[in-house]
Design a protein that fits this description.
The complex is a heterodimer. Chain A contains 18 helices and no strands. Chain A is an all-alpha fold. Classes of the chains: A mainly alpha, B mainly alpha.
């Protein structure tokens, strides 16, 4: 009964809450940014979770795992649907290269930093080290356009080109992050333990790619006929549940596999716009549910976690600044954008949180939950910092 | 250039999809045969598979004229624990959460589909049908068991009083209908008209009355089996009280829903799903609580609450059209899951054990329904095509009957196993045949596609 009660409570909070969140209330800027990103739901989850009120206990979290798989799948699928090639082609090619480069540079900086720190402090077991670093780097690479929503229309109009580039990068750089994150699952050695690491990676990669391709072919067949509204809702739910379940059965990431399916279907089938409408209809509640679930599993047992979180935040900050600097110097066309573009790319958005939850489900354990707790704090740091820095970028330009 | 026939394209596409989906699922199952892969994901995988496979199978069967819910039920039977075992019993039990949600949701749709004006017009027909079916179906099934029961190996071991008790309970359970199936078929066929209104009215009224009949039957059985020789009048008062309270709660809920639609209106589909789920879960929590604390068998009925809520929104507010439209828009995934899981839960093992008796009972029940609908149609001077075909619309049986059988089995241990086995077998037959005959009936009376 407790599971059902918790489930009802979570659903109620998410669906009643999203009408209040994401709105421009008159609050101080840093709180507004916090509020706009729905971060308060992380705290709500933490409050309801096993560490405080225990309304949603560990057993409940476990029982609701199919539901979290569904949420992750939905987010991944929706993210994939945003990559419609014919729409992406409308933007200059430099934008695409720049976005990928920015994501990669942040990834490399955070990867190098995390690797150096984690290998020296002996915090994680050997088999978790590489996946954890990949997760940290992938989460750091993501950007969201949340901060732009706080900017005034006058400021946005004045810096229209920069805003466009920021929006473009925000929607693209997650692609690199997600693919890199998928590599974390390739490194698992649970089923073919007698073989060497590279053999495992190869075999896992083959298995995961095969499963993804299978799902894509299946759904491309199904969606080759035009579907009406209710049928599309049913198919959307069925696809996400099936693909997410397949990923979990194979110990792979539901987020990534659904992303790949979403990406392929938007570019292969004839239902693209209507499919996107179905998915985007409940985007916000799904995101808030994700925050609640993350909040529930948020390990914040020690205050010392604030410091590594700050260090991680700094690494990301440095990566974004460097990434922004490099892409504004790749050719003459890009030079017209401010060199400090990176300070406009600090808002992390929902994707790193989805990556985090996915990682926690795929690699459970105390140390991983501490690491995830650290990333959550860093996301909060970024949510507080990013609106001010973005305003500064747009004003300084 | 030759153009592909859309029907042919649908057929080929769904066939290919179903084929590849099955192969894919078999492949994943093969990889997972030793159970060393992620078990937590297996439920999601199985649920997703069932949803997509049932959808596709129903589309295929629709091309040969079968109702889509039959497609869902057949898919459920095939995927269920008795045929391929893709969904095992534990999983079916776990997914009962979906059943609860769907039943309440369907209750709301049923209530919303009832309009006072239509009911008034058909009140005589509804009353007569309910009365005659209750009497005749009961009498036919009861007499059949009493007079021929000893010929069947399955119940030969029962004593005479036990056979009487068995016949009483089976007779009452035979009266039960499946409002969910009726609503699903009516929606699918977009049926409308006096015949449809009568069927819907009778099915829903019967759903209320069956609870009363069942309580009376249980009391009678207790006397027959000499567990207690006294008629428990208190339990009757409590039953009527619970039904009345369920209706009142439903009416209040309906008022709240119409207020919400009028004042806010956004995310109505999500709100209705949430309300359905909450009602069913609160009833499940409150009923045992009352039983434990006050020592009375007080059962709030989620289905009645939701029906009453739907009825209130439809008839006592201006929001009925939007309400019903919203329910209709999200009904497909709910019907699919509900009927597929219902199919998976159908006890094929029970049917295999006692199919001769089950088949006979199912046939006798149909005769009872036919006699009652013919007589009622004659008394209300219905058109001949209505009189001739009405019996086909009342065959479906599902959740309520199973629930009653389970209660009866728990409370009358001596005949419990026999009763639940035979009821499950009869329901399996009725639920396979019922939707098909219902769709045929709607077609023959000319009320399909009239909405």
């Amino acid at each position: 009964m407790k599971i059902i009660f918790a489930f009802l409570l979570i659903i109620f909070l998410a669906f009643s809450g999203y009408h209040l969140s994401f709105k421009k209330f008159r609050l101080p800027l840093f709180i507004r940014g916090f509020y706009l990103s729905g971060t308060e739901f992380l705290f709500l989850g933490f409050l309801l979770g096993p560490r405080l009120l225990n309304v949603i206990d560990n057993e409940t979290v476990k029982a609701l795992e199919p539901f979290t798989t569904f949420l992750l799948g939905w987010i991944g699928f929706l993210f994939g649907l945003q990559f419609e090639i014919k729409k992406l082609r409308r933007y200059p090619f430099e934008f695409l290269i720049g976005s990928i480069l920015e994501g990669l540079i942040t990834f490399i900086i955070v990867f190098a930093g995390s690797y150096f720190i984690l290998t020296n402090i002996n915090f994680l077991e050997d088999n978790l080290l590489l996946p954890a670093i990949l997760m940290l780097s992938a989460a750091a690479s993501c950007t969201a356009p949340t901060g732009l929503a706080l900017s005034t229309t006058r400021l946005i109009k004045k810096h229209n080109n920069t805003v466009k580039l920021l929006q473009y990068i925000s929607s693209i750089d997650g692609l690199i992050a997600l693919i890199i994150f998928g590599l974390a699952f390739f490194c698992r050695i649970p089923f073919f333990s007698e073989a060497g690491l590279f053999y495992d990676i190869g075999k896992n990669a083959l298995l995961y790619m095969g499963a993804s391709l299978g799902c894509i072919i299946l759904f491309a067949i199904l969606l080759s006929i035009r579907k009406d509204g209710p049928e599309l809702i049913l198919i959307a739910i069925g696809m996400v549940v099936f693909t997410g379940g397949t990923a979990r059965v194979l110990n792979f990431s539901p987020l990534l596999i659904n992303f790949l399916v979403g990406f392929s279907l938007i570019n292969l089938t004839r239902n693209e716009d209507r499919l996107f409408t179905v998915f985007v209809a409940i985007e916000k509640p799904v995101y808030l549910l994700l925050l609640i679930f993350l909040g529930v599993s948020w390990n914040f047992d020690t205050i010392w976690i604030l410091f590594p979180a700050a260090a991680y935040c700094m690494l990301r900050f440095f990566g974004k600044i460097l990434g922004g600097y490099v892409i504004t110097h790749i050719n003459s066309e890009m030079k017209k954008y401010p060199s400090l573009l990176g300070i406009g790319l600090l808002s992390p958005g929902g994707l790193p949180l989805a990556i985090l939850l996915d990682f926690q489900k795929g690699f459970p354990g105390l140390h991983i939950s501490l690491l995830a707790g650290m990333v959550i704090i860093s996301v909060i740091y970024n949510d507080i910092l990013s609106p001010n820095l973005l305003q500064r970028l747009l004003r300084d330009k | 250039m030759t153009q592909t026939n859309p029907l042919k394209k649908t057929l080929i596409t769904n066939f290919l999809f179903l084929l590849f989906l099955t192969l894919f699922a078999a492949g994943i199952n093969y990889l997972n045969k030793e159970g060393n892969f992620g078990q937590t994901g297996y439920e999601s995988f199985a649920l997703g598979f069932v949803m997509l496979a049932a959808y596709s199978a129903a589309k295929l069967l629709k091309t040969i004229g079968l109702p889509i819910i039959s497609g869902y039920i057949f898919s459920g039977i095939i995927a269920g624990p008795y045929i391929t075992g893709f969904l095992n019993l534990e999983m079916v039990h776990k997914f009962s959460l979906i059943d609860d949600l769907a039943l309440s949701f369907i209750g709301m749709t049923a209530g919303g589909a009832l309009k006072i004006e239509s009911l008034k017009k058909r009140s005589r027909a509804i009353f007569l049908n309910t009365l005659l079916q209750s009497i005749m179906v009961f009498l036919f099934v009861y007499s059949f068991i009493i007079f021929t029961g000893h010929y069947f190996q399955f119940i030969r071991n029962l004593t005479h009083p036990q056979i009487i008790a068995f016949a009483v309970l089976l007779g009452v359970i035979a009266i039960a209908r499946s409002p969910s199936s009726a609503i699903a078929i009516i929606n699918e066929c977009r049926a409308s008209g006096p015949f449809t209104d009568t069927i819907l009215g009778v099915t829903i009224v019967m759903d209320v009355f069956i609870i009363i009949f069942f309580t009376i039957a249980m009391t009678a059985v207790q006397i027959i089996l000499a567990e207690s020789g006294v008629v428990d009048y208190l339990s009757f008062s409590i039953l009527f009280c619970a039904i009345a309270i369920s209706f009142i709660i439903g009416a209040l809920l309906g008022k709240l829903i119409s207020f919400y639609i009028k004042s806010f209106g956004h995310d109505l589909a999500l709100l209705l799903l949430f309300v359905s789920f909450t009602v069913s879960k609160i009833c499940m929590a409150v009923n045992p609580l009352i039983e434990t604390h006050f020592n009375i068998d007080f059962h709030l009925e989620p289905l009645l609450i939701c029906m009453s809520a739907g009825f209130t929104v439809q008839n006592f507010s201006r929001e009925g059209k939007l309400f019903l439209g919203t329910l209709d828009r999200i009904s497909l995934p709910i019907y699919l899951l509900f009927f597929t899981l219902a199919g998976a839960a159908l006890d094929i093992k029970a049917l295999r054990m006692c199919w001769p008796l089950a088949l006979c009972i199912a046939m006798v029940r149909v005769f009872g329904i036919f006699a009652a609908t013919w007589l009622s149609g004659s008394l209300t001077k219905d058109p001949v095509k209505h009189k001739k075909n009405a019996w086909m619309a009342y065959i479906t049986q599902a959740g309520v009957a199973i629930g009653l059988a389970q209660i009866a089995a728990r409370q009358s241990m001596e005949i419990g196993v026999y009763l639940s086995t035979i009821v499950l077998a009869v329901i399996t037959i009725n639920q396979i045949i019922g939707p098909i005959t219902f769709k045929i009936a709607l077609g023959l009376t000319g009320e399909a596609q009239k909405k």
